[in-house]
Amino acid sequence: MAQTGGGQALMNVGKALLLYAPAAALGWAVMLLLARSEGVLSAEVRNTVGLENPAMLESYRAEAAGALAGWILATVGLAFLLAAAFLVVVSLARPRTPAEESGAGGLWWGLLIGTAALVGGWSWWTLAAQGAATDLNGLWIGSAALAAVLLLLLAYWLSTAWFTPDGMKPSVPGGWRFARGGRR
To answer: Sign of dihedral through CA atoms 169, 101, 5, 118?
Structure first.
């Protein structure tokens, strides 16, 4: 017996969490690993602090690792919440016509843009506006933020394409590819 309404919405959000949880763990581990490198620190910090007190570099790296790990967990959380919002809306929808089946397409695009804006904004706020970027290598931080935004947009698309109910798959670009039977 197929679940309907709230039960299906909860199941779809739970399935999406199974995609985002490993992404968060992997991102957290990668950030901690990369933050161990001296290259994560700005040249100014390496040249001034490193020359005066090389032991202090470890303290700066540990602080950078904490900031970056917290940042990646928060960005994945934000992206998951937006995907979950979409999945709840489409799981509760009961389309009766083909037009209604693709009726949530505007919401999908809006939340995709919202994901990019929130993740990008959160990255800027946490890493640049809060002063963390003054101690960190700007190129490294910019590259990490761009990679996070792109990967989270991919995760948003995959989670919504995979876990949107078949009747609403036309709302997700390319979602029909993930429908049972691959119907268009």
So the answer is: positive
Global pTM value? 0.77
DSSP of 120-143, one letter per residue? HHHHIIIIIITSHHHHB-HHHHHH
DSSP track, 102-114: TTTHHHHHHHHHH
Question: How far from the centroid of its chain's Cα atoms is residue 137's Cα?
Answer: 22
183 lies in some domain: no
Rounded distance between C-alpha atoms, residue 110 and residue 90, angstroms: 14
Does residue 98 lie in a domain region?
Answer: yes
Query: What is the domain count for the chain?
Result: 1
- The three-class DSSP label of residue 41 is strand
Residue 159 lies in a domain: yes
For 66-107, write each residue's pLDDT tens digit: 777 778 888 888 889 999 999 998 888 887 777 777 788 889
> pLDDT per residue over 118-147, tens digit each?
888 877 777 766 555 566 666 677 777 788
Which of helix, strand or coil describes residue 42? coil
